[in-house]
Amino acid sequence: MGILSDLNIKPGVIYGDDVLKVFQYAQEKQFAIPAINVTSSSTVVAALEAAKDKKSPIVLQCSQGGAAYFAGKGLPDSSEKREASVAGAVAAAHYIRAVAPHYGIPVILHTDHCAKKLLPWLDGMFEADEAEFKLTGTPLYSSHMIDLSEEEVKFNIETTAKYLKRAAPMKQWLEMEIGITGGEEDGVNNEDVDNNSLYTQPEDILEIYNTLAPISPYFSIAAGFGNVHGVYKPGNVKLHPELLGKHQKFVQEKISAKSSKPVFFVFHGGSGSTKEEFKQAISFGVVKVNLDTDMQWGYLIGVRDYVTKNIEYLKTQVGNPEGADKPNKKKYDPRVWVREGEKTMKARVEEALDDFAAAGQA
Ligand SMILES: [Zn+2]
């Protein structure tokens, strides 16, 4: 039982129809795959190890800043070309593709939010994907995200369609965003839900579906249902996952779809949400949940506690409470203290795999 045996999918990074099959399987079995932001081989390892131990599929994603970090913060990254962001994304993909099969689970390799001003980054990655596709028959990335949610709806949908046309021959997935996934909505009045810009309207979802579906089936929508990026005080913004159910019903009726969940939804701004809210969103067709903020916190905990506990061993290379001539090399080796961050981040990924019922699904 599980993705590898039921869908006949090989471990490692998956592409095209395999990604589609996995997302369909997730809707059918009512689970979502956590999308973990990775910025280094160390954060990749933490996420992969969690998925391996939980026998779960996983999405690894690089943001533009995370991709640039992969290449090195010392490299120039012009706004016209985003050289470092492209190089880092390519490097991350090669690294993850090389190690992922050894973890024995399916991995979806994705890039996170790409706003209008970052489109040169997306263009650069598409070039690398197309070159790889020519050589091997798969792109580098399973999937990319384009985020024009801050632009006019018409521009958002038309531009997303243009990029989906470019991705389609490679059977590459494209995630898009509509509505405002806010971050500053403290104290916003949500009583009139349907008229609030925080909440995506069903007509918009239908228009996206009708524009994108004829191009390719490989797309998903991050819709706003009161979600926020980052962690805020509970109660400030009210989540309405049931809106996703309304969208599904609306699209199903308008296109006379057989499936009660014709749309693949993505949950952004998931850090800080309750388990019940996740469960509800998943029941309405959410197949991927982004988690970034909580992972950064998870990684810090191990490093912080290690340094705090061992501080008397970390002040000089030689000399500690056990003696003035005792060496501290075993304490300050990065493999020791960085590993502590991996362990606590891994624990946080495992919690997410359980919360979204992805554990055991590989
Ligand atoms: Zn978003």
UniProtKB/TrEMBL annotation:
Bound cofactor: record note: Binds 2 Zn(2+) ions per subunit. One is catalytic and the other provides a structural contribution.
Biological process per Gene Ontology, one example term: glycolytic process
Cofactor(s) the record lists: Zn(2+)
Protein name per UniProt: Fructose-bisphosphate aldolase
Record has Ribosomal protein as a keyword: no
Protein origin, superkingdom: Eukaryota
Similarity comment: family membership: Belongs to the class II fructose-bisphosphate aldolase family.
NCBIfam families according to UniProt: cbbA, FruBisAldo_II_A, PRK09197.1
EC number: 4.1.2.13
GO molecular function: fructose-bisphosphate aldolase activity; zinc ion binding
Catalytic activity entry: beta-D-fructose 1,6-bisphosphate = D-glyceraldehyde 3-phosphate + dihydroxyacetone phosphate
Binding residues for Zn(2+) 2: 147, 177
Residues that bind Zn(2+) 1: 113, 229, 268
SUPFAM superfamilies given in the database record: Aldolase
Protein's UniProt keywords contain Lyase: yes
Residues at the active site: 112
Cellular component GO terms, alphabetical: cytosol
Organism: Pseudovirgaria hyperparasitica
UniProt keyword list: Glycolysis, Lyase, Metal-binding, Zinc
